[in-house]
Amino acid sequence: MKSNYKIIRLVASIGAISLLQNLNAAVTFQVNYVQVDAGTYRDDQDATSGGINDSGVDQRLAGLVQGVVDDYATRLLDYRDPTDAPNAVVLSISAGDLDPTSRTLAFAGPTNTARAGRFEVASSGIVHVNTRFANQTDEELRATIFHEFGHVIGIGTLWTQNGLIDGDGQFIGEQGLEKFQRDFSPTATFVPIEDAGGAGTAGGHWDEGTGLSGINPNSPYFGRSFDNEILTGIAGVDEYLSDVTLGAYFDLGYEVDFIVNSGPFFWDAGNPAEDGAITSGDGIWNFTNRNFANETGSENLVYKDRFILVFGDVGSQVTLDGVFNPSSISIEADNYTFLNGGLDTTEGLKLTVVDAAHTLNLNSPVSGTGTFTLDGAGTVNNLNNISAETILSAGTLLNNGTGTITGDITVADGAKLESDAGGLGNNVTLTNDGEVELTGNQTVASYVSSSRIFGAGSLTANTFALNDGAIVDSDLLNGAINANGAVAINRATTGDLNVLSGVTTLTGSNAANVTIANGAELLPVANSLSDTGSVSNAGTLTLQGDETVAGYDGRGGFLRGAGNFSVSNFAGGLIETRVNGAASVDLTVDVGGGQVTLGTGSTLKFGTNNRSVNVLDVFQIFTNTSGIVGDSSSIGFQNFDNSNLGADVSAVFDVQTGAVFITGSSDAGSTVNTTSVARALLGAQ
Known about the structure:
38-stranded mixed β-sheet
């Protein structure tokens, strides 16, 4: 083990004496050289003397400090959330002897913190250098100071406050871990933290002794040991800064300039010669060749996962030799083809076909536990299998021929999915807020829509959820249909139709039962309801032509509209008719010679828009009827009149005696047209 430990300490705040800063940086350091009494920070610390302000910092050390301030100014670009962020990080720097037996090169830490949005960041801190090791080279001493600045900023000191340590004491910050995976250990689930070296080293540095070396050929530390990363706990030679530390700074709340650019990098297989030009062409995408270039074409690189990739110039055939997980792919030319290999969505993948005139032929499978997002105005022609969850946020996804989609798919507003027979998997949940065109028959697990589905094909599903704005121009087979909001069904459906809210128009046909919930309305065109199905209506059924059903229970609901309603089993409810003159109604109910049954609490209501019908016209609605019977002793009739009374009244019909008693006028209790009414009610001639 190397002998010199880089120790971190959390110490008390001390006053400022002099100033040094980089005013060009968004994250500013205000450096003060301060005199420190013996034992201020730790028992073996001598008083400082000499140098700038008796801080013990000489001109050489001050020059190195200034260099580190400049280094950080190039790497820390801003606070990720500048809300309430400190104007400057105030650093109190000193140098002096520690106990001769101490192997501490320096120690540092934040003394005060502030909130920068959701992050806890340092607002002040100290750095103390052990002058017993002043014989270090400038490079070594500068690395030590850079290291100590890192502790002030939060490495090992503010990890817990920002939720970056797991229950086992390992670092799990998103960017730090992602860069560790990219550059050192692809399967890592954390960045290992040092557990040796005692207080001040253990728990506050990257771990040494991992045996890991850089694996990213695009990084300047490719092949170098992780033990020499500058924020490990033990000083060494050939130390370097990695994107793991910069990623940790990002996780601590800072915008950073990473060492290894993740892109965008451009497909340059036509002439990968660092010639200052981007030349596409047929080629192989793998982890070893250099078929990607920077934006100017002056540098060609080996592909690494999480790159941002652009395929432009002219369309080419790209053969994938492996399974890749880029951060995003942008297609900026027509007629690219991806072949073989595969795309991995485990960490998410966004694919954008930029122009409406461009098509990507995707003949490579897409799989993984993350989301596959398709964007842009162009078209993806899927010729293989997409098993990842897919969000089609814009553009068109063609799923024809050999293409299959076996993961759940969401079609966003403005996007379109086109699929031929069998292209969608049986276990798929298809959510449609854009357009879905079926050129062949499909079977999925469930369909959820607030937009249009159309085409010559049918859709079979276990359940259909049609929400406000849904339009059905393809047959829906098998499953129950739940309609909420304004829904238009213009094709055949075979499952039960449940109108739960809003208004559903039915211009197609329904081959099963119908349920209309309280407050909902169904408007079927003529002959669109099933002859063998039943209607349960607690809302409103507004007929727009003749209908025949097996049964109707409208107790609690309204039956309205125009046409002949033929029903084998009628259990009434609120029946409203549209009046054309004093003695005509547009709605008739034909029960085939059977009885009309009005259940408990049923009411027949005649007359709308402040108009009424004669009491005898109440019964003209029923034709071919043997009689009207009730489940209770009396049934109420609302808003009819009798010309002899000259007023709208309400009445109750006594089922047992056939008498009509007026209940809603000054003549309450009188019998009106009892014999005629009884005959009509009982079917007598």
